[in-house]
Every structure is written in C-alpha cells, then in structure tokens.
Amino acid sequence: MKLNIFTFLFSLLFLTACDSLDLNPLSDGSSETWNSNAEEIEMSLNGLYKDAFWMQDLDDWTDDWTYRDATTPVTGATINGETDFVKTWWTNTYKAIARANTVIQSVDRAAAVLSPAQIERYAAEARFIRACQYSRLLSHYGNIVYTETTLSIEEALALKQTPKEEVLQKIYADFDFAASKLKTTYGNSELKRASAGAAYAMKARIALQMSDWKTARDAAKACMDLKAYTLHSDFGNLFLSKTKNSVETIFGLPRSVALKVTLNGLQDYVPRNAGGYAAKDPSWDLFCAFLCKDGLPIDESPLFNPREPFKNRDPRCTATIVEFQTPHIGFIFQPHPDSVQVLRTSNNTRVNNNDTRSIAQFASFNGLIWKKGIDADWTLNSWTAEPDKIIIRYADVLLMYAEAKIELNEIDQSVLDAINTVRARAYGVAVTATSAYPAVNMGNQAALRKTVRIERRMEFALEGIRYMDIIRWKLAEKVLNKLNYGLLDPADLRTKVVKPDLWFFPQVPQIDDDGVADFSPMYNAGLIKQLTIRKFDATRQYLWPIPSKEVLTSGLVQNPGY
C-alpha cells in the first residue's frame, strides 16, 4: 500500500512503513503529548535527517554520464507519472514535511521546561528542513500543494495546488526564520545539521533555480559574510570516506558502515581489475569540458594534445577522471586495446588487463572511469563506503553568488574573486597567486556567464549538481538531444585509430559557447561509435510529472505534456 499526499498531511499516525524504508522508528512519537521536552523534540528532529529524506539528483540524468548502452527515464525521455523516482521523491518529501509540521505545531508543549529561545531554535530547525523539502518539490514538480499544518481528511481533500511564487515566498520565510534563530555553523567535530549558514546557502540555491537573482545574490553573500566556511585545501580528497565534516561542508549528512548508513552500488564505479564493473562512467562530453591550464577550451588551447588528452588540463580533470597509465585502486589503469596486461601496484606483478575491451567485453565503453571520491576502501566492507553525504558546500555558494551577480549584470571584483577562489583551490595555490593558475579577469556578461557555467561543470561533476544546472540554464534540450559516443570495438579500434596513431581522440572536437563538444565529425568519419541516443522533450521535461496516483485520486492538476 502507498498513501497519497493527503494521507501524509492528515496525521503522523498514518505514517507507517508501507514500503521497505524504515521511516518511522520507535523514536518518532505521534501522541498528543509527544515533543513535551528537549529529548523528545530532538528525537523527532533527528528523524528528519534520514537519508531517504535527502534524495539528490543523479548524474545519470545528465550529459556527464554514460552507462554502456543504457539510458534513464530522463535521458530517454520516458519519464512519466509512474516512474519510480518520481513517485518516491514525492512520497518521501511529503513525509518529511508532515513530520516537520508536527514538530513546529507541537514544540510549544515544552514551554514549561524550555525557554522561549530554545523552543524557537527547535522550531527553526524544523522550518529549515521544511523549506528544504518544499524547495525540492517546487524545483522539480513546480505545481505542488503547500500546507504548514496537520489537516483533517476533509481539509486535505479541499486543498488545491499553490501558485509557485506563493510557495517560494513561504520557503524564503522559513529559511529567514531559521537563519535568525540557529547557530551560525557547527564545529568540525559536529554533524553539519541545520544552521544559519545552511539556511542562507539553501535559500540561495532555490532562489537561483527560480531565477530570483537578487535573492540568490543576497543569500549567498549573507552566507559568505558569516566567515564561517572556507574551501577544503585538497580538492582531490574532499570526497573520500576519510574526510569527515570538512570545513567546506555547509550542510551534509554522515554515513557509517557500522550503523549501516552507507553509499552502495560501488562496483559500477570501480575498475574491473579491482573487482568492479566500470559500467557507470564519465562521458566524453564531460571529459572535453575541462579547460586546459591556460584557461582555454581544448579546441583553442595549444597545450591540448589529443594523443595525451589528460596532459595540461585543469587539475580537476585528473581528480575526477582516472588518467591513463596512472595507479588507481591497486592497478595501473590503461584502456588501450593493445595493453593486454597491466601492473598490480601492491606487488609489482603483471596481470591480465580487464580494463580494456580487447580483454573484457564490458570494460568501460568509452575508455574512461570515475576517480572523484573513489578509493581503495570501496573494495572493503562488502562493497559499501561511508563518505559524508554533502548536500551543499562552500564552493557552491561562491559560484552561486558569482552567477547571480553576472545575471544581474553587476560585474565587479567580487564576482572574479568568487570564481578565482574556487579555481585557485583546484590548482592548490592562493587566489592571489594569479600567475600560478588561469585567473579569470574582467569580462562582459556573456563571457562571464560562460565562465561560471564551465567552472560549475568542472567543480561539481559526480555530485548531483549538473542536472538542475542544465534545467535552470535551459540547456537540457540541447545537451540531452545529442548522441553519447564511445570507442570502436577492439578490432576496428586497432585498425582505424591505434594503427594510424590516433589514440585517444582521432580529432580534436570543437567546443561551442556552452562548453559542449561536437563529436559528429569523428562519428561521420567512422572513428568512434554511438553508444546511446539521448532524448529530452523540451515541451514537458523541464518539470517532472505529478505522480499518477495523486492526479487520479486527489484531483491534482498534471503538469503539461504528461
């Protein structure tokens, strides 16, 4: 049984575990006396940080991704009201909202034992979570139901969808209240739960998504002005399991193998030599988006050599994608079809190379595999790992600030400083060392818009950020209606690419003003092959459909095109 939105809004009494998710543990009370002291309120609030309530967008909905010859409901344009994640996101988000509303409504029960300031802080934490949840609904579904109270069935059935601007203003009000009542931030040893910094950052994110540039600018600036966050010193190890509660994380959730809250599905990202499948891989589109060390795209830079395509690139390229002939998870990685053996680094012995398709048919179809966040500890603990789940980090705030200012055509030094701070960290140098990295200089609005968009792509690959970026920029209809390409089959690869010394890229693809590579000349020349046909229907897919059951049983109005 799955309950619709109105049942969730009616009462927490009905929020039993109807599916496999344990979303209603014994610590979540639902009686009329619950939340009458600090312990009970904190237990209720802790329940709102369950992983299931903080779903993130997937990179496999974007042009940064390839999964052999498969597409997703987004990249195959088959998304509808029965798509699993469409229903799950809606269901779990409204569950979280119902529980947050209950805390907000009942927290005054503790007035006899808590001070007004304590009660306000608890209410602020619940309002922060409610605002985050409504932000997800608004940005993905658009046409949603909004309520701040627990309703009777009759009241719930009378609800209609709320105008987007009205929902947005209520979200802002919750974030503002949270920012005024919560701690500025939490220390490095503490869970990065709701804080004033997180409220400003998440407010900036939804404002940017809704093209409210002024609010995005001001919220991002408020977060920056707290002086509570800085960038992690090493981009490469920020995403590893060993890096906990980074100074860069503004809001995130911990994972723990011991507590069985883990990152799973790891073998799809690990190379085949190390026991993985190397099935889910970075796309050539992403690979070609990384700039060269002179700050130019690969089709303009004299530093780019298609025979050695990792050389002279922005450091985030090799921090994100495994460079050929380098050690990774215990082996030297080399997808070259003639590399039938590779070195096992633990004992310097040579083994069969299962990361080339000339040996293993299902090795990476385009010769690339992910490196970002992937570590040897992924092969331990029954293929589970415990990196922090970063919801938002300081680099995002800096680049959101820059983007909002650019869109407002408020081009000043603060815009350049924000972008250069992120870029300099990638190079491991101070932002003032402008000769040591390709610092961004003053430019017009169009040029800086291109710069910040490329910077975001290089910075946030494999973090679930790209999807809403291409939705916000209205680029999805362009980038997701392009073919996904990969290597020729081994025999043809040797004949047409390796023998004439054209490995890795037979030609340098042209990069357009949106940072999008054109592989069609190589494809038309028979030098690469099509993996998948990506599709995106711009008439409907910029919003998700309302789940079918909600439309059929609750009378909600479906989004256009579904």
Structural features, described:
The protein has 562 residues and is mostly helical. It is built from 18 helices and twelve strands. It has a two-stranded antiparallel sheet with strand order 1-3. Strands 2-8 form a two-stranded antiparallel ribbon. A hairpin with a 4-residue loop joins strand 6 and strand 7. It is globular. The protein starts with a helix and ends in an 8-residue tail after the last helix.
What percent of residues are in strands?
5-15%
Mean pLDDT across residues:
92
Following the backbone from N to C, one meets helices and strands in this order, namely HHEHHHHHHEEHHEEEEEHHHHHEHEEHEH
Please state the CA-atom Rg, rounded to the nearest Å.
24 Å
The major sheet is characterized as:
2 strands, antiparallel
| Total DSSP helices | 18
Helix content: 25-40%
Query: What separation lies between the terminal Cα atoms?
Result: 24 Å
Structural class, by secondary structure, is mainly alpha
Adjacency order of strands in the biggest sheet:
1-3
Question: Rough shape?
Answer: globular
Parts with pLDDT < 50 across at least 5 consecutive residues: 1-28
Number of DSSP strands? 12
